[in-house]
Amino acid sequence: MHIHSSIAEMRAALTNRGRIVLVPTMGNLHAGHIALMTSARSHGDTVLATIFVNRLQFGPNDDFDRYPRTFQADCDQLAAAGVDLLFAPTEADLYPEPQQYHVDPPEIAHQLDGEFRPGHFRGVATVVLKLFNITQPQVALFGKKDYQQLMVLRHMTRQMALPIDILGGETVRADDGLALSSRNAYLSSAERAEAPRLHRVLNQVSAAVRAGEREFARLEREAASELDQHGWKTDYVAVRRQADLQRPQPREEHALVVLAASRLGSARLIDNVEIDAVGSR
Amino acid sequence: MHIHSSIAEMRAALTNRGRIVLVPTMGNLHAGHIALMTSARSHGDTVLATIFVNRLQFGPNDDFDRYPRTFQADCDQLAAAGVDLLFAPTEADLYPEPQQYHVDPPEIAHQLDGEFRPGHFRGVATVVLKLFNITQPQVALFGKKDYQQLMVLRHMTRQMALPIDILGGETVRADDGLALSSRNAYLSSAERAEAPRLHRVLNQVSAAVRAGEREFARLEREAASELDQHGWKTDYVAVRRQADLQRPQPREEHALVVLAASRLGSARLIDNVEIDAVGSR
Q1: Same domain? B238 vs B154
Q2: Do residue B101 and residue A159 have CB atoms under 8 angstroms apart?
Q3: Do A161 and B99 touch (CB under 8 A)?
Q4: Do A11 and A108 have their domain in common?
């Protein structure tokens, strides 16, 4: 696996590489990332991973400084997964000067995670646009655990007329249901034992909706309350439309998704569960 | 010359075209545009012009509706100038849904023309980014008459890590000095006779600066006053640094530019004159 940090070298290495499949990451790779790499192989000729902890998408109180960085182990995993190329720029490579031009996403990016992480999706969209411009892939894969991110990037790509297919990879979970995440490393062992509740609660909401329950606001309140009674501090639990993360319209059938973000100890965990199309009366 | 309006057709027509040189326009072409097309020829293998009157860069009180549209004559001129391909999308092609993702430019885009045309450069940057993504050129040419636009697009391109060289074409002028512009068509014959004063006044400021004058604020006021005394309504006259359009720093040597926007009758005209590097004490 060839590793590049400079933009010019990365570009040079991508000539005559056929159909390029990009998998951007912030490193500290786990089985969820590796599943994306494996899936990527089937979508093109060259699998290109990136590792970059993007300061632009972290708020002043976010965990940029302590975000786990495990570069050598990441490289080993990527090589073992058959990844062809790794782009791992430094901040000086990607932001040689303060970033003054940004992608400005619409209102939906200021809801849900965007409400609790102001500027987050602006930072995500901007760095991903730069990565797209540098690597010019035909396909890019992102995990569904970051569901809102996937939607923002899919819409940005379409609205900016980028010739890139955006694909989502299924969330990979531990045996007890906890979605794999680099931020799970912040959990104490007691918190780790409690953490699967997030997924269980989302499954409960999903089951209630599938059973015909349509008082989404009550379901959301009850789910948040159950988490908070067990020591979580919940930012949101929300039933939304899969396509655009807007609130479901009454009396329309939509494919839905239940999303949540909640803090347990010093970790802020997010997760979601998709629900097939249901009427929402 | 092949003409395309759909994005998919345009993309298909651009495969195996070698080095692509893009010249975006809003149509109603004059000798300034044609000079860009001729220059484009020397920078690559395929010269691609675009014609699109971009609603996104017009304010509610701007001249979107009356902006001159002369498509057939434009096509004849482009073909005669040896342009290979024309991309002329409709609004439905380029904005099949309301544009919700934008390029957000920095503070400088809210000064000068940006102060008097709020959102203008956001609209320009967004549409040009889309045109770049659709056509993926190696080089793009823009006229220097829209000096601030050229700077914004150059900076956006660099900051978004787009592999595109942005080149500026010299302003083409009528014999009496008036910069060619589609908006000159709004002038009555009396106004047309008055219009060259804009360039004369900019030349006066330039001459004063080259002669050592450094009270830029006074020069700007006097220039605006001279215009206004002759029936103009001046938005600004400004001496700025060429590189970033910031105000010159005292006691530093900069390449400067004098820019102005002023309204004469129902036309809002802009122009500028570059000044070679001078100390600014």
Answers
A1: no
A2: yes
A3: no
A4: yes
Per-residue pLDDT tens over the stretch B136-148 = 999 999 999 999 9
Query: b/e for B15-37, b at 16 or more Cβ within 10 A?
Result: eeeeebbbbbbbbbbbebbbbbb
The residue assigned the tokens 């102060």 is B115
Number of structural domains chain A divides into:
2
Query: Within a domain: residue A174?
Result: no
The rounded mean pLDDT for chain A is 96
Assembly ipTM? 0.95
Roughly what angle, to the nearest 10 degrees, separates helices B71-80 and B31-41? 40
CATH classification at residue B87:
3.40.50.620
B116 and B155, same structural domain? yes
Residue B34 to chain A, least CA–CA distance (Å):
27
> Among residues B139, B169, B199, which one ends one of the domains?
B169
CB within 8 Å of B130: residues ≥ 6 apart = A160, A161, B94
Do A22 and A161 lie in a common domain?
yes
Q: Which residue of B has its CA nearest to A108?
A: B100
Asked whether the predicted pLDDT for residue A278 surpasses 80, the reply is no
In terms of residue numbers, what domain contains A268?
182-273
* Inter-chain touch A101–B103, beta carbons under 8 Å: yes
Q: Which structure tokens are listed for A136?
A: 């010019």
A65 touches chain B (CB under 8 A): no
The verdict on A144 and A224 lying in the same domain is no
A33 in catalytic set: yes
The Cα A142–Cα A170 span in angstroms is 9
